[in-house]
Amino acid sequence: MKKIKHFSVSQKVLLLFFISIIFSILFSFLFIHFLYKELYIRSVKERLIFEGKQTAAHFHYGSLSEDIKEKIEWYNLISPYEVIAVDQLDELHQHFPYQIDYKHLISQEDEKKLSSGQYVVKEGYVHELDRKIVGAIFPLTHEQNLIGFIYIYIPLAEIPEVFSKGIPILILFGLIFFVLIYFVITYSIHSIFRSLRTIQTIAKEISRGNFSKRVPIQTSDDIGELASAFNKMTESLEKQDERKKEFLSNVAHELRTPLTYIGGYTQILLDEAYSSKEEAKNHLLLINKETTRMQKLINDLLQLNELENKDMTLEAEPIAFSQLILDSLELFAPALKKRNISIKTDLDDEIIIMGDMNRLHQVFCNVIDNAIKYSFENGMINIALYQKEKRAVVIVRDNGIGIPKKELDRIGERFFRTDKSRSRETGGTGLGLSIVKQIVALHNGTMKIESEEGQGTSVILSFPIVE
Under a CB-based contact definition with an 8 Å cutoff, are residues 435 and 362 in contact? Predict the structure, then answer.
C-alpha cells in the first residue's frame, strides 16, 4: 500500500497564508463591485433623476415647440446626459431605437405610470452601445394636461474607468503589503519551527535513551514555554531512567548476596564438607534466613508496586488514632524487653482520622520497628500524638544512632540504607520507608524526618482529621 504524503506544519501554515491571500483578493474584487454598484450607480441614478426633474420643470409652455427642441439639443452638447423630448411615447423609438436588457424600452406598466404623472427609471444593458445605461422618462404636463415626454439617460462607465486611478494604487500597495506579509510569515514560521524541529530531533534522541540534550530557550512566548516544559519532561525522564538503573542494580545486588550464600552453603551440604551435624544445621539455618530475606524483599517490591498503582484504592473508615498506635506497640513488647528500651507516650485520645486500618497499622509497625532497631540498648522511644491546624501529628523519636545530614534527603528512596552492614544484620531491605512514604501519601498525609548522628531520629507524620 502506497504511503500518503502528509503536509508538514510549516507547509500547512504557508498554505493557510496563500488561501488567505486568495480570499483577500476575492474580497477586494467583491468590495469594488459593491462600491461600483451601490455607490457609483446609485449616485449616478440620483443625479440623473434630479436633472430629469429639473429639466421637466422647465417645460410649461403648453407644447413642445421647435425652439424648445433646439435648446434640448444644445443641452445635450454641454451635458453628460442625453435628453430626448417627444410629443408621443411612440416617437421615442425613433430617437432611441435600442432595447434595454433585450426588452422594449417602454412596457404597458410604464405607460400607466407615465399617464398618471409618475416618472419611470430604466436601467440595463444596451447591446448596440455595449454599455449599461441608466435613464428615466418624465411626463411633461401643462395645466394638468399631458403635452409630451422627455427621456434622459447616461451610459455607465465600466469598473476600470470608475476606478482608473484607484485600482493601480490598490494593486501597488496590495503587492507591497502581501510581499511584506509573506516575509514576515516566512520569518515567523522559520523562528517558530526551528524550536519545534529541535524538539523533534531531541525527542528522537530521547527515544533512543539519550537524555543529556536540552532545547535552547530563546523566547518567552508559547514556544519558549513548550521548550521549557519539554526540558523539564526530559529531566524527569532522565531522573526516572537513573532511578530505574539504580533500582535494577540494587535488586541485583540484594538478590546476589543471599543467592551467593544459599548457593555456597548448599554446595557444602551436597559435598558433605562439614565436620559435624551442628555445623550442617547452622548452614541450613543460614540458607533459611537468606531465603526468608529474599521472600521479604520480593513481597516488599510487590507491595510497593501495588501502592504506586494509580488505580490503588483504600478501604477508608474512621479510626481512633491513639488506639491504633497502642495496638501497634503491643506487637513489639518482646523486642523492647529484649533490648531494655522504654516507651513514653503522650497521645490525644480524641483524635479521629479517616484511613485504611491495615495500611496505617503497617506504617506504625515499620516506623516503630526502625526506632527499636536503631536505638541504643537501655534507651527510650517517645511517641506523641496531637492536633495542629485540623491535622493529626504523630512524632516517633528515638535516641539511637541517628542519620547523617547529607543522607536525610534520600530517606524513603528504594533500597537506600544509611548503614548497609547493620541493615543486613537486622534483616532490612531498604524498602520499608518507601512503603511508609507511599501509604502516607495515599492518605493525603506528609512524612518528615529529623535526625542528628549519635542523638537520635524523629519521624513526623501528619494526617487530616475528621471534624
Answer: yes
